[in-house]
Amino acid sequence: MQRRWANITLGIALGLFLIGLAFHRQFWAPYLESMALAGLAGGVADWYAVTALFRHPLGLKWLPHTSIISANRERIVEAISNLVETELLSVSFIEANIEKLEIGRKIVDFLDKPIDPVLQSQLRDTMSQLLDFIPEDRLAAYLEEFTSEKVADLQVSDYIVRLIKWLVQSENDRALFSFLSRHVVEVLNSVEFTEDMEARLKDMLEKYTKTTTQKLVLGLLESLGTVDYKDLSVTVKSQLIDWLQSEKAFEQFELAIVRIMITVRDDGALRARIEGAKNDLVRTVPWERAVNWVMAEVRHRVEDDQVWATLSHFARDIADNFRAYPERQAQLENMIKRLTVSLLHRYHPVIGRLVRDNLNHMDDREWIDKLEWYVGRDLQWIRVNGAIVGGLVGLILAFLIHFL
């Protein structure tokens, strides 16, 4: 539309000039001719200037300094990318705006709101689609291969030795012994163990009474109540508990684990068996079945409304916690801002590179058409203004020449 008005303006100037020539004997004809000629000169000059920015006027490529934008495309692209990267979206500008954001408060407000049903539905659909894209058989094969490689490099024997050495040196072996002995005492004090101990003591005594005389004496003692298996089991149990709570038991435990450490460290055959058991354990894991089970559970949880309700309740609890402890909210905000600024410094050059790559991706025709679409429409008014201003200047000069 603007180009049409510019062309109409030139047409009007040309028409006025022809009218002046046709009526050159009239007193007003010189003024009309001067105004029309000046308007034509201004309009044509501005047409040439505007056209020369984008293409060669009249297709004459030998004219100097034409198709300026196309000829200087690389420099213009570089200037635009630098402008965006260093001025419009500079690091300091983005940092300043990040610092103004109340990220912590916005996060708390977001967590405090119940999950929107529409958003929940969209998230559910998106997660379901993403899960469908996961090839479960390939994932299982990858996990098996990755785990096998990592486990093959893992020397379990060395870790066992280091663990025992650390237990002894840090005196945590006493805590481990106390933990184990406490549970052993709980087992010894159970009714099931007491009854089992009675039965075993009775079987043991009957087993070692081989002669008829021994059996007769044992039966006599049992009938007289001299041999009470319950009291005997309680006595044995009490002796075991007292021994477990003694320093001697701990010394024996410590000596045993040190011997285990030395054996694992120095016995090559034992180390080989441990590593072999480790590799066998990895190979026996049903990876594909495990992955299928996990994926099925995830799909089921994604579709379960109760899970989303639990997540919403958990999010509100987190929001309440942040409100109760403002310092934690400030720490979260500072952490997010530091991470964002760190990523900004690392990837900020990508902004200019994206602008540069996008502009370079265009061919010359698209490049010129886009610039002319955004800028050329306003430049056409320069042609209109040139014709009008030129005509007025020509009219003024004609009056000045005639009267002065």
TrEMBL record:
Record flagged with keyword Cytoplasm: no
Superkingdom in the source lineage: Bacteria
Classification via InterPro entries: DUF445 (IPR007383)
Transmembrane segments: 5-23, 384-403
Record's signal peptide: none
GO cellular component terms given for this protein: plasma membrane
Alphabetical UniProt keywords: Membrane, Transmembrane, Transmembrane helix
Protein name: DUF445 domain-containing protein
